[in-house]
Design brief:
Number of domains: 1
Number of helices: 9
Structural class: mainly alpha
Radius of gyration: 24 Å
Strand content: under 5%
Number of strands: 0
Helix content: over 70%
Order of helices and strands: HHHHHHHHH
C-alpha cells in the first residue's frame, strides 16, 4: 500500500486530487440539472450521475493546475456550494434561448386553448405543453447539430482556469452577476415574445372573426365551434413562426454561451 501511495504521488497529492474532484463535480452537477442541451427534464438520475462523473473525470486534470488550496471537512462543503452557484449561473445563462423556446410554446398553447387538455407528466410532475415540447426539442436538436454542446463545454472548461476552484473571493462581483443575469433574463423573455408573436396575431384575428360571426348569428355556439379552429390556426402560426425565426437561433446560442462565460468571471474576484 505504501508503494502504491508513493507511485501515485503520496497521500497529500491524492487528497488534493480528491478535493479538487469534489469541487469540480459540484460545479458540473448543475449542468445536468438545469441545461436542456445536456440533460432534459425526463433524463433518469442514473444517467445524470454518469454525466457528472464523466465530466468530472475529464475536467479535473485541467482544474487542478490552477486550483487553490482545497480545505477539508465542513469548509469543503462551503466551497462546494460556491462551485455549485458558479455552475448553475453558467448552466442557466447558456440555456436561456432554449428556455425561451419552451416559454413561447407554452404561451401559444395557452392562447389556442390547449391548456384545457393539459395533463401531469408522471416523469416530471409538471404540466405538459405540446407546442412547448416541440419548440424545446427543436431547439435542442439544432443546438446539438450545430455543435453547441462542444462550444459550451469548452467555455465551461475555460472557466475552470479563469475562475479556479477552491479560490476565496470577495463578494464585490455578485452585484455585477445579478445585473448581468437580469439583462439576460429580459432578453430571453423578449425572444420568447418574438417567437410567440405570429401565433398571437393569428389567434387575435380568429377571435375577431368569431366575434363577428357571433354578432351576425347569435344562435351559433361560437365558443365550442371555434375551439378546433383556434387550435389549428394557433398550431399553424406557431410552426410558421418557428420556421421563420429558426435562422435567429444559432447566433442566439453563441451569444448565450459567450454571456455565460462572461457572467462567471466576477466570481474570480
Amino acid at each position: 500500500m505504501e508503494r502504491l501511495l508513493e507511485a501515485l504521488g503520496g497521500e497529500e497529492t491524492i487528497s488534493r486530487w480528491i478535493g479538487v474532484g469534489v469541487l469540480v463535480a459540484a460545479r458540473v452537477a448543475p449542468l445536468t440539472l438545469v441545461a436542456p442541451w445536456l440533460a432534459l427534464r425526463s433524463t433518469p438520475p442514473v444517467l445524470r450521475a454518469a454525466l457528472v462523473l464523466a465530466l468530472t473525470a475529464a475536467l479535473t486534470p485541467l482544474a487542478i493546475e490552477s486550483a487553490a488550496e482545497v480545505p477539508s471537512g465542513a469548509l469543503l462543503g462551503l466551497f462546494a456550494a460556491r462551485e455549485a452557484l458558479i455552475g448553475a449561473t453558467f448552466a442557466l445563462a447558456s440555456s436561456l434561448p432554449l428556455y425561451a423556446l419552451d416559454w413561447a410554446g407554452r404561451l401559444v398553447d395557452t392562447w389556442r386553448g390547449a391548456s384545457l387538455a393539459e395533463v401531469i407528466n408522471p416523469h416530471t410532475g409538471e404540466r405538459t405543453s405540446p407546442v412547448g415540447d416541440l419548440y424545446l426539442m427543436t431547439g435542442v436538436f439544432l443546438f446539438l447539430t450545430l455543435g453547441g454542446h462542444r462550444v459550451a463545454i469548452e467555455a465551461f472548461a475555460d472557466g475552470l482556469t479563469a475562475v479556479p476552484v477552491g479560490a476565496v473571493t470577495v463578494q464585490a462581483g455578485l452585484a455585477e452577476v445579478a445585473m448581468g443575469a437580469a439583462r439576460l433574463a429580459g432578453s430571453a423573455l423578449a425572444f420568447a415574445a418574438a417567437l410567440a408573436a405570429p401565433a398571437a396575431a393569428a389567434i387575435v384575428l380568429v377571435e375577431v372573426a368569431l366575434g363577428l360571426v357571433a354578432r351576425a348569428a347569435p344562435q351559433i355556439p361560437v365558443f365550442f365551434a371555434g375551439m378546433p379552429l383556434r387550435a389549428a390556426v394557433g398550431l399553424f402560426a406557431a410552426l410558421l413562426g418557428l420556421s421563420i425565426l429558426v435562422s435567429e437561433l444559432p447566433p442566439a446560442y453563441r451569444d448565450a454561451i459567450d454571456s455565460a462565460a462572461r457572467l462567471v468571471l466576477p466570481f474570480g474576484g
